[in-house]
What we know:
121 residues; alpha+beta; Glutaredoxin; four-stranded mixed sheet; 6 helices; 55% helix; binds glutathione
Amino acid sequence: MISWLYQTFFQPRKLLSPEEMSATVDKVNAWIKEKPIFVASKTYCPYCQATLKTLDELKADAYVVQLNTIDDGSDIQDALYEITGQRTVPNIFIGGKHIGGNSDLQELKASGKLDALLSDL
Ligand SMILES: N[C@@H](CCC(=O)N[C@@H](CS)C(=O)NCC(=O)O)C(=O)O
């Protein structure tokens, strides 16, 4: 139990070498470029759930990476910070353009600009 608690909450993360970090940034940039809609998410995050619900309602097919379910999720989050200056999730890209987080997506929806962005895909 003590060992599980330590490994889950306190085990220090292995930091990436500059080369590994650069490879992760390249991987994330490829998703941004190649996926019409890319969302970095976490399964327990209510803002992420709101974003995915909105995209689903608009029948917008997103490539979703759930960072908390994969081994390199923290590295991808670091790469996203390097690329966008944003560390929080959801981190949303549409048509290669950085949208921001859920509040940014909801503002775009409310202003009618989200439909235009999606129809350009
Ligand atoms: N205003 C942001 C709030 C996003 C936010 O606070 N997300 C939390 C998760 S629910 C987060 O990223 N926390 C830092 C982390 O998980 O590393 C939005 O609308 O997207």
